[in-house]
Structures are given as C-alpha cells and as structure tokens.
Design brief:
With 120 residues, this protein is of the alpha/beta class. The chain has a single domain, classed as DsrEFH-like (Hypothetical Protein Ychn, Chain: A, 3-Layer(aba) Sandwich). Helix content is 34%, strand content 22%. The protein has four helices and five strands; from the N terminus they run βαβαβαβαβ. The chain has a five-stranded parallel β-sheet with strand order 4-3-2-1-5. α3 links the parallel β3 and β4. α1 runs parallel beside α2. The radius of gyration is 13 Å and the shape is globular.
C-alpha cells in the first residue's frame, strides 16, 4: 500500500529553520515516491505567490524555490483558505498548480487510512 504524507507548515520568514525543514521534508518525500500534500498556513502562505520563495534564504539550506518546484512537480500544494483571505490572496494570485482550500480538506487528507501528517 502506498503511503501519503501531509505536511503543514505554519512558519515563514518569521521562523526560517522550521519553514525550511517542512519544505525539505515534503520535497524529499516526493523524490522518494511518496504522495505528498504540502499545506501553507500562517506566514508560509506568502510563498504561494510568484517570486516570494526566492526572497527566502537560509544558510546551508536548499533554495526554497527549488523545494517548492519539486513538490509542485510531484505532489500537491495548498494554501489555507482563512490564511489566504487574511492576506488578501486569491486563486488568481497564486503560482500555477497551487490551490486554496479549507480545514475540511486538510482533515480529509490527514485522516486518510494511508496518511501520516506532520506540522511544522
């Protein structure tokens, strides 16, 4: 049975190491053939906008743009509905392939029989 991984990242530029860890875990899982759903919540919601991931730097860490591209290529990226609304981010604003969805969808993904969920 193929397992899936749901990664919820709540940090952005305010906690760069935690943010980078979440993106790194998601990208490595995708590279390993795991079905991945990366949720951008709180300050990480900004990374759903074009060019924002390029503003992120952390010494000794992979570029966030590369990690995000890897997850988009082989997994799913979602911005929390409320987090997007608080930041006035709409579906027209986000990088192609990113969706906006709410807690009900997160719970469905996290509670799937084959799912493992991580929160950063």
């Amino acid at each position: 049975m193929k397992r899936s991984l749901v990664v919820k990242v709540t940090a952005g530029l305010d906690a760069p190491e935690r943010c980078s860890q979440a993106f790194t875990v998601a990208a490595v899982a995708v590279a390993g053939g795991v079905e991945v759903s990366l949720w951008l919540t709180g300050e990480s919601a900004w990374f759903a906008l074009p060019g924002r991931a390029a503003e992120f730097t952390l010494p000794e860490a992979a570029p966030l743009t590369d990690l995000l591209e890897a997850v988009l290529a082989g997994g799913r990226v979602t911005v929390c509905t409320q987090c997007a609304a608080r930041r006035e981010i709409t579906g027209d604003d986000v990088i192609p392939g990113v969706r906006i969805a709410g807690a009900q969808v997160f719970v469905q993904e996290a509670m799937a029989d084959d799912a493992q969920a991580l929160v950063y």
